[in-house]
Structure formats: C-alpha cells, structure tokens
Design goal:
The complex is a heterodimer of chains A (about 90) and B (about 290).
Chain A: H1 8-30, E1 36-37, E2 43-44, H2 46-67, H3 73-89
Antiparallel strand pairs in A: 1-2
Helix pairs in contact in A: 2-3
Chain B: H1 14-35, E1 37-39, E2 45-47, H2 51-57, H3 60-90, H4 96-110, H5 113-123, H6 130-137, H7 148-176, H8 180-188, H9 193-221, H10 225-230, H11 242-252, H12 256-288
Antiparallel strand pairs in B: 1-2
Helix pairs in contact in B: 1-12, 2-12, 3-7, 3-9, 4-7, 7-9, 9-12, 11-12
The chains are: A mainly alpha (about 90), B mainly alpha (about 290).
Amino acid sequence: MDWMAWTWPTALFFICIAAILTVFTVLAIKFPETPRKGVLRLETTRGDRLFITLLGSAFINLAWLGVVGANQPLALIVCLVYAFAVFRWV
Amino acid sequence: MEKTVNQKAWFLILPVLILVAFSAVIPLMTVVNYSVQDTFGQNEFFWVGLEWFAEMLDSDRMWDALGRQLMFSAIILAIQIPLGVFVALNMPKRGFWSSFCLVVMSLPLLIPWNVVGTIWQIFGRVDIGLLGYTLDALGISYNYTQDTFAAWATIIIMDVWHWTSLVALLAFAGLKSIPDAYYQAAKIDQASRWAIFRYIELPKMMGVLMIAILLRFMDSFMIYTEPFVVTGGGPGNATTLLSIDLVKMALGQFDLGPAAAFSIMYYLVILLISYVFYTVMTTVEKNEG
C-alpha cells in the first residue's frame, strides 16, 4: 500500500464517499427509487441526484479555491446548501 | 399481477465492481493521494494540501491547453458529424456496393493510432511526403513543424480521415433501420428531399447520432498519440493538447503532484460533459419511445 501514498485526510475523504454510497445502496434496497421530474425537467432518481450533488460539489470546491482562495471549509457549507437544493428541487 | 421487486439482484454486479476497482478506482485513489502531496522520488511524500490545485487553477499553461483542447474537439465535431451523415446519406443502401463501401470505410478505424500519426507525419513532409511535396510544388507554403495553421490543419484533417467513418457507419445503421413505409408516405405527400431528411431521417438517426457525438467528443478530448507523433505538441505549444501537456508534466518533468491535480480536473470536466451528453441522449430516447 506504500505506493498509493495514503494520507489521513484523503483516506477520510474516501471513507466518507464510501459511506455515502453504502447508505444510498441500502436506501435503494429498502426503499426502491421512483424517478421524478424536478426544476430541470429531467427525470432523476435518488442516485442521479447524489451523482449531481457529488460532481457539483467538486466544481464548487474548485471554483472556491480559484476565486476566493481562502477558508476552503466554507466551500463545504455551500456544497451542503447545494446538496439540499438538488435533493429538494431537481 | 404485481411485479416482484427484488433489489438484491444488484449484488450480482459485485464481480464487475471488483474488476473496476482494480483497473480504475484504486489508480484514481492513488492520483487523489498524489494530488495533495509533493515528492522528490524514493517514494517519499510530503503533505501540501490543496496547493497544487490552486497552482493549476492559476496556471496559464493549463487554461491554454484546455482552450486548445476544446477548440480541437469543437472543430472535429463540427466537421465529422455533418460529413459522416452526408456520407451515410449518399452510400448505396443495399447490394455489393453497400458492403464494399462499409469495408472500405472501416479500414481507417482498424489502423492503430501511432500508425495513423506516422502515416500523416510522412504524408505531410515537404521533402518526401506526397501532400507536403505537392503543396510545396504548387507554391503553397505548408510546413507543419513551423507554421501553427499548417500544424492544426494537419491534425484536424488527420482526425477527420481517421474517425469520420465511425460517424458515417453509425449514421448508416440508423438510416437502415427506417422502414420503407416512411419513405412511401413521404412520396405520397410529395415531400422534398430536404423535408424527408429533416422530418424522417434526422429524427430517426438522432439516437445513434448522439452516441456518435458522445464517442467522438470523449475520444477527441483524450486524444494523445496522433498529434504527439505528428507535431509533438509544436510548433511551440500550438498543438499541445491537454493529454500531451499532462504527460509532459507527469513523465517529462516528474511533477507528480501538479500532474495529479491536473488530471483530476481533466477527469471532472470529462465526467461533467459526458454526463450532460448521457442525460440528453436518454431524454431523446425516451421522447422517441
């Protein structure tokens, strides 16, 4: 595993992603997904909305880093607001 | 009768997941690990946080390469898609010549990337290449090693030569699937050639065309070998596309950290654009169905 050059922050990051995926898999098994149409007029399932949230969050973090360049954790708050909006309205 | 819902079938995809983990997920994780560290070799790493990402976002080099890459993909899509459809529309629909055209059109697709690059590299040379020599004899200044426009023209024409057949073959498959009844109805209505294309052929081809656009976009966005063999990214940096720049950074300069940050951003852009294409494709398919 040495060659993978693990660090605690990156390990934590992947653990979070894995945990989110596990939770959503369990949710999908317990409560099967039903597609719905939101503000984008796209048919999305719970999994689609998670994908949009994760991908969007990556871009929010990059944009924060490029434009603001400081207080990176604040970008996570923007991501949470974004995630709420995606799950509520998309 | 109500259909049984059994979500446990999802566990059957576990073998694929394990395979993908080894071929894609673990390498990707390693790239993420590299992107937040610096190394001077010997497998020793030092934590630098988001420094490489900030450096890359601030680097003209990356934005220029991204600009060139987007321009390259836009130009080849703008040429290959209409040209491929045009070729498919004019291909014989059945009989010997149809099969003959299909085989001939498939030939460029079978040639490996580096061979295509070498073919065009020699073809374009002013001293021994047929194209370069002819243009030179006609008094047209053409030298892809020194002139930016000539270098761009060469790699674009090379890509068009290599991949237009794919679009044509896909479009042809779409056209073949249209039942004759549609054409008969159009004939009764005395529809013009344009109307037949606009209201019958194009909508029926939409599904395969979206796949063609998606394939060509992804492929052109990742292109490395052909332009590298022909121009090596030059003259100057004129044809240094994203992947060429990335390889220069990672292997040429051994800047693993910045190269890892660069590749993650490259990956995110591809993921975003592919997702948009995929969504559009599935929406079009649903509307058709």
